[in-house]
């Protein structure tokens, strides 16, 4: 009787969240991330016991901590990857604002842990590096501004994103943290190029970056010392670069054997910035090439999926995150083989570090959310329809 009076209710065909997430997810990228984390734990067993022994902890103290941080990072990645792009954008912008305020307060409440740069907040049981959480939030915020610029009567988002980038780069350089500053500037340049920036402007930005590097070299002893060490024709065998170079040379193609490496006893950052030297010494070139291939697959798959994306915000934000992820890995490995000056940057999902792991999980979760399959026509279809 009710149906005769009011009619039948429309059938709701709503797919459950988990099956929909799994169906639309880029499973290759997810598998590569999990493989990198597994390799990181494997290398942690080799690299961290000497440091744990030196600091009076159990042999696997840092491995256990890396596992705990890794579970938190993977949890953040899974949760973030299930979000809609709109929710990711809102939370990322909010997180960016919080991280930026934390970055500004570092000179007052931060510490350098004896490394010459105030980059961390010490919590006693752990430390937080705000710049790690700032990077993914910045990429999303800058992409949002650039996408708004493309709308009819939209705000001058490209100019605002440029001004925001300059402010962040200057704040990071004052720590000093030139590695993260370069990473922020590069990711913004990639997004700006995709958004249609003229080549002359990008060339001008490169010249400005070189000019800024010259100023930093003349005004920062910390920066000058690293550049001089990089340009020196001879490598001091007692420096971190010297130990890493020798370890890579000793590893050869197949490595010296599991647990047989010596560089972990000499390098204070063997489990973080120079983890690839441990991999090269004990497991050889084979494992290093496998790690490079995993990073290459993640970046390539992300860009291939983003090429088909119609939404300019998703396309820009995803491209910025993929570029930042890949370039950070290149910088870390480039430093270890002396192709780049030392920058103190971790290898994503492989190096030890709470902030870098959890922030990396959030960033990759955003990337997975942006690269999920969506019911839409491709850009080529739109262009063909436009010119008919």
Description:
This protein has one domain (21-373). Helices cover 69% and strands 1% of the residues. It is built from 17 helices and 2 strands. The protein has helices spanning 2-6, 17-24, 27-47, 49-54, 61-81, 85-104, 106-109, 130-149, 157-173, 178-194, 199-219, 221-231, 240-251, 275-307, 312-336, 354-370, 379-386; strands spanning 121-122, 127-128. A hairpin with a 4-residue loop joins β1 (121-122) and β2. α5 runs parallel beside α16, α8 packs antiparallel against α9 and α15 (312-336) packs antiparallel against α16. The relative contact order is 0.15.
Topology at a glance:
Layout: H1 2-6, H2 17-24, H3 27-47, H4 49-54, H5 61-81, H6 85-104, H7 106-109, E1 121-122, E2 127-128, H8 130-149, H9 157-173, H10 178-194, H11 199-219, H12 221-231, H13 240-251, H14 275-307, H15 312-336, H16 354-370, H17 379-386
Antiparallel strand pairs: 1-2
Helix pairs in contact: 3-5, 3-14, 5-16, 6-8, 8-9, 8-10, 8-15, 8-16, 9-10, 10-15, 11-12, 13-14, 14-15, 15-16
| Poorly predicted regions | 382-388
Number of domains: 1
Largest beta-sheet details? 2 strands, antiparallel
Mean pLDDT across residues: 85
> Which band does the percent of strand residues land in?
under 5%
Helix segment tally: 17
Tell me the Rg in angstroms: 23 Å
Order of helices and strands: HHHHHHHEEHHHHHHHHHH
Ends: how far apart?
Answer: 53 Å
Main sheet: which strands, in order across? 1-2
**Total strand segments:** 2
Structural class: mainly alpha
The percent range for helix content is 55-70%
